[in-house]
Amino acid sequence: MPPVGHVLHVAEQDVCLRFGPMLTQVWQGLCASGVRTSVVTDDEEMMARLAGTPIACHWRRHLSGWRAWDFDEYLRAYVDPRPQLAHLWGTAGLWRLRRWSLRSGVPLLVHALGAAHVARLLRGSWRDDQYIVFSSRLLATPLLTRFPTAAGRCFIARPAIAPPPRPPSQLPPGHTFSVLCAAPLSESRGLGVLIDAVAELRRASSDVHVAVVGRGRRMTAVWRRMRARHVQGAMSLVDDPRLWERVLPHVDAYVVPGPQRELSIVPLLAMGLGKLVIAARDQPAEWFVEDRTAWQFTPGSAVELAYLMMRAIEQPQRARELGSLAAEYVHAHCSVHELVGRLVGLYEALWRRKRETPSASREKSNGSRRAE
What we know:
Elements: E1 6-11, H1 13-32, E2 36-41, H2 44-50, E3 56-59, H3 71-78, E4 85-89, H4 94-104, E5 108-112, H5 115-122, E6 126-127, E7 130-134, H6 137-146, E8 154-156, E9 177-182, H7 188-203, E10 208-213, H8 219-228, E11 235-238, H9 244-247, E12 253-256, H10 266-272, E13 276-280, E14 295-297, H11 302-314, H12 316-333, H13 336-356, E15 363-364
Parallel strand pairs: 1-2, 1-4, 2-3, 4-5, 5-7, 7-8, 9-10, 9-12, 10-11, 12-13, 13-14
Antiparallel strand pairs: 6-15
Helix pairs in contact: 1-2, 1-13, 3-4, 5-6, 7-8, 7-11, 10-12, 11-12
């Protein structure tokens, strides 16, 4: 039995949408390793995923904002027995979770999964028993540059996935080259590049269809751009951010049309499935490796993106070879088993620090205002 017997995990819906398959695999892996696992989330779909597992699930309608004013009281009343450590995936509810962890004497591990999480942590205060794990080294750079003394409380743990079996790669005669892009529609710049690239392919009479799956305030603007470029017959725009889980095994390629500031498990899973991944350069995630896990193009260049998609259509064998290399990379460097082991080791180290430092529960502010 590991020294840390009970860990509370908190994950908001946005994180569950981007990392759902990984979270369920990691939490079940932690249970299998002997760590009692409790989860608090505002995502009903995640509750359904975890039904029938040993994971204790708690659903809250709101984890942050003024409607979550009693979140810390809820944790004291309903999370029983009290956990030895809390793991917050993202930053939703950070301030109230910090307040609860301080009063309860529970160390807090905050998991930064994108630039928005890092920006919020940069605005926050620090305690001796608050720690941060970053999903990539580049995400850690802004915070460590500003707070170099925090290096001892910051860790790296890249995302991981256990992909299902790879689907057969034989294409039927007359096959339409299919592409998936899962992206927040509020970030329309990268989607504009993708739309323009599809317009280039249509002018070349390429048989291609692109599905864009996501949700956001700019859905109407994205649709208007598709119509203006006359690509609505070659593109689908779907307001269902979870659809990618069902579609990804059946497409030929996955496209990341711009630098992915908010990380997602989707490109990593596409690599693990042996799919061709085409991505803009300057990604904050180190698992985008040129000609090893992805073909890459200059951000903002629709011409380069169109060229790579045309290359995949005309040279399917080269695309399949890259997919095989990417699958090997993911299995070697991004396994759920290794991530679970990394987290168990972190939990044990943080709990050991807590026991050896009597003052660990005292507030230590860096002079910045609270994060909420």
